[in-house]
Amino acid sequence: MILTVTLNPAVDKTYTTGSLILGQVNRLETTQNIAGGKGVNVAKILRQCGYPVTTCGLLGGYTGLFIEDYMNSIGADCRFTRVAGETRSNINVLAKDGYVTELLEPGPEVSDEELEIFVKGYEEAITRCELIVLSGSIARGIRSDIYKRLIKLANDNQKICILDTSAEALRCGIEAHPYMIKPNQKELEYLVGHKLTDIEDVADAAGKLCEEGIAKVVVSMGSKGLLSVSREGALWAKAPSVKAVNTVGCGDSVVASYAMSMLEGEDDFSSLKRAAATAASSASTFQSGEISLRLSKELLDKVQIEKRK
Ligand SMILES: Nc1ncnc2c1ncn2[C@@H]1O[C@H](COP(=O)(O)OP(=O)(O)OP(=O)(O)O)[C@@H](O)[C@H]1O
Ligand SMILES: O=P(O)(O)OC[C@@]1(O)O[C@H](CO)[C@@H](O)[C@@H]1O
């Protein structure tokens, strides 16, 4: 069983339009509400692949009910903690000119009492799971060392953690040495405090994190591809060429793929190959946090892996 944690889920209001112009009236062509937030997306992909999933985090209001209903409908074991505030709605505008614009709300204010109820449920849930995925930003009122605390609890129970977050929550979270992190290039730059110019630069920065005690650093680099770094070295997967329809949640598909690979005991090479194929399949699917199983399978043979270090 895999446990996914989403402390700041969202309904992704996904719009399509020709182009989005700042400071003007923009009429949208289509709209769809999608249950989202990074850990929710990871759980959705795992369910698509037939994996049993427990999903927890904080949900509130009608948007929270919308997400919970959807997760129940796909057979996830939902263990969310209710909060008084309303779960956020994020706006994703997919424009035909190729630009994807995301407007992300900060999320509801969460009280200490609500958080402690969540932590109690989490402590219970980790005992029944083999692997824990902690994903996304944290809602207001939650201290940035929350992932550090949750990872320590998992480590004390000898459970493997994957952390995929940003900013201070990421900086504090890595102090607890999660088994794997999946920063994108910007998130890695935030950690190291400077710009990274090429793949070698990115591999060096990720390598330093491995020396500090993180077994695997997988850096997602958008349409360029994916870099997997461990103490054994760095492997690069060029992204297979697909027609990108919605790239929101591609990073979550990388995390979901690695979670499956870990449980199946796949090596670095096969795990990276699978992740790049899954992520490209996610990019070519309209629904964020979904993949085409057929396309993922087809792309697997097309992913080329290169040793970079
Ligand atoms: N246009 C694309 N074509 C093929 N693969 C893609 C494309 N865009 C993204 N990917 C794949 O998805 C991976 C993750 O994408 P990205 O780096 O955008 O993640 P992210 O920033 O974590 O996104 P999110 O936070 O929305 O999940 C990339 O490393 C790449 O392998
Ligand atoms: O604010 P966060 O938690 O960093 O990101 C939230 C979010 O952009 O991440 C998912 C895609 O990865 C979307 O479903 C969601 O809207």
Automatic annotation (TrEMBL):
It is an enzyme of class 2 (transferase). Keywords: ATP-binding, Kinase, Lactose metabolism, Nucleotide-binding, Transferase. It holds the Pfam family PfkB. GO terms for molecular function: 1-phosphofructokinase activity. Pathway: Carbohydrate metabolism; D-tagatose 6-phosphate degradation; D-glyceraldehyde 3-phosphate and glycerone phosphate from D-tagatose 6-phosphate: step 1/2. The keyword Mitochondrion does not apply. Residues 20-288 form the Carbohydrate kinase PfkB domain. The keyword Nucleotide-binding applies. It catalyses: D-tagatofuranose 6-phosphate + ATP = D-tagatofuranose 1,6-bisphosphate + ADP + H(+); beta-D-fructose 1-phosphate + ATP = beta-D-fructose 1,6-bisphosphate + ADP + H(+). Its EC number is 2.7.1.144. Belongs to the carbohydrate kinase pfkB family. NCBIfam families: 1-PFK, pfkB. Catalyzes the ATP-dependent phosphorylation of fructose-l-phosphate to fructose-l,6-bisphosphate. This is Tagatose-6-phosphate kinase.
